[in-house]
């Protein structure tokens, strides 16, 4: 099984420099261009069988562009939504730091300011990844359109890392990761591929 994991394109929150999380911002004009470039690359290089997406606007809009390019319908999964950042959603970083400061120690089970705990976040990633894998055959190619935070947590789940792992995989706008599940192992083919953006007009 091949799993193509994609982060959404640039959103309005990226320009506003606010905490996004569950705040539901749409793509920018550039984000739409990035998503089209990504979709063209994937439609040429992969035969995608299913597309799974977070229902949040920035991911669903990216997934719709991919769906149009591949003629594959979208399956929306709440489990692919970004980290639930509770009261921080939509706040400027300065206001969030002032009103909701990060404690010196944050335990994996701790839930603050209406957020998910890290254990809850990891459990959600484990559950949705298991569901997607179980629903598809070993020769399938699956696309997952999601968000930077949940993608990082899906990486930890895919690699069977401990809950307190400090691994962080960066993903740029429409960054593509290619994973593979074979009879012997889980493989990382590549991470954060952004070459489809090389000739993109950023204006």
UniProtKB/TrEMBL annotation:
InterPro entries, alphabetized: His_Pase_superF_clade-1 (IPR013078), His_PPase_superfam (IPR029033), PGM_Phosphatase (IPR050275)
Pfam families linked to this entry: His_Phos_1
MF (Gene Ontology): phosphatase activity
SUPFAM superfamilies reported for this sequence: Phosphoglycerate mutase-like
Catalytic residues identified in the record: 8, 82
Sequence positions that bind substrate: 58
Name assigned to this protein: Phosphoglycerate mutase
Organism: Clostridium sulfidigenes
